[in-house]
Amino acid sequence: MNEVRRFIFFIFVVNGAGYLVFVDQHYNAAGWYVWIKYIILAASFLFLTISFLAAKKIYFKREVAVTFFLWASIFSIPVLFGADAFRSFQYIVPIFSLVLFADWRHSMTGKYWWLIFCLTILGALFEYYWLGGFERFHPTGYRGVSIFVNPNNFGISIVILSAVAILKNYANKCLILVVTFFLVIYSGSKTALIMLIVLFICTLNVKVVTKSLFFIVSPILIISGFIFGGSIGYSLLESSELTSFFIRMSYASDFFSGVQNLMMPSVDSTSYYVDNAYLQLWIDLGFISAISLVFFMAFLINFARGYRTLFLLFFLASLTTNIFYIAPVSYFFWLTVGDYIRSKVQTDVEGKRLLGEKNNV
Question: pLDDT tens-digit profile of 71-80?
Fold first, then answer.
């Protein structure tokens, strides 16, 4: 049963590969292919329910249940005050990932991790040499998407998956970082490049002083990535603009200058969009939902021992991408939250057991 569920989730992660074949369905919200994702997601939930009924050990621990219902409430209550119900639904659905696996990092390493990486590389080669890329992503230079629908989603997803493999000591760190670097450059995602640099720093097995030197060098690498990261091949040297950055800044500026209802901007007559997960959540579901997620992310980064690097990467991604309702990154985030909760519960249980044994001696 677990293997079936893992395989279905693997298909869900890589379903964007279909757009390389059915190019006319790419970014076609009314197209038939978008239903493929929903069917696969529904199948995941179906097998999850069946596994609940059949498994000897239920993964839906009390702490996971509390987390699920807390965030489902935070994302659904705003509908009562005028927020869009469908947008609320988009935020809530990924939270079900809390109970998808007992240990998603373990589940996604092994053959499925290698399959995703291999498909990503093959998808990139096919896209570049056969399709010539997707024109909508080439305003300043070539940007690839491979099997992840858009460049940012591609770059961010591949860095997160690489971090999972590295933190689990699943494969050679240098090999993963090198392959991931070229894939990130191919995507042209500046956010993913920054995430990769942070991941590289966090994986260094050196003294703090040496790490500090890398923080000095990092701005130079980031600037270089900004200049060269948005293009590949013949257009590599032509993409030196920060157009996308300034566009994102203008979105935020438009929101702050035009918002009327600070607590629930979605009820304004003007619609807003910002490429920042917290500002967009503020726009969609109100200030309370947004500030709650900010504090939650701060807690995870500071106190989620063994998972801080992953949550730091998610935080960096959230600054320029609406990762909390976009697949598959939103599912990766809540899977990691569920994984952390279970590991903490297990650690606390083992700690109490050892303390009890010591007191009985």
Answer: 999 999 999 9
CA–CA dist 125, 359 (Å, integer): 61
Which residue's entry shows tokens 């489902």? Answer: 72
> Minimal CA–CA distance to 177: which of 192, 335, 142, 129?
192
Amino acid at 161: L
Sign of the alpha-carbon torsion through 107, 110, 112, 113: positive
Half-sphere exposure of 49 (CA within 13 A, CB side): 6
The model scores a pTM over 0.90: no
Cβ(27)–Cβ(70) below 8 Å: no
- CA distances 236 to 135, 143, 170, 189, 361, Å, are 16, 10, 33, 13, 68
The answer to whether the CB of 276 falls within 8 A of the CB of 169 is: no
Q: Which two tokens stand for residue 106?
A: 């373990």
Buried-state track 215-244, b at ≥16 Cβ within 10 A, e below 16: eeeeeeeeeebbbbbbbbeeebeebeeeeb
Q: What pLDDT digit, counting tens, does each position of 294-336 carry?
A: 999 999 998 888 888 999 999 999 998 899 998 889 988 998 8
- Contact indicator for 163, 199 with CB cutoff of 8 Å: yes
Contact (CB, 8 A) for 313 and 163: yes
Gap between the Cα atoms of 159 and 17, Å rounded: 18
Q: Are 199 and 308 in contact (CB under 8 A)?
A: no
CA neighbours within 13 Å on the CB side: how many for 180? 29
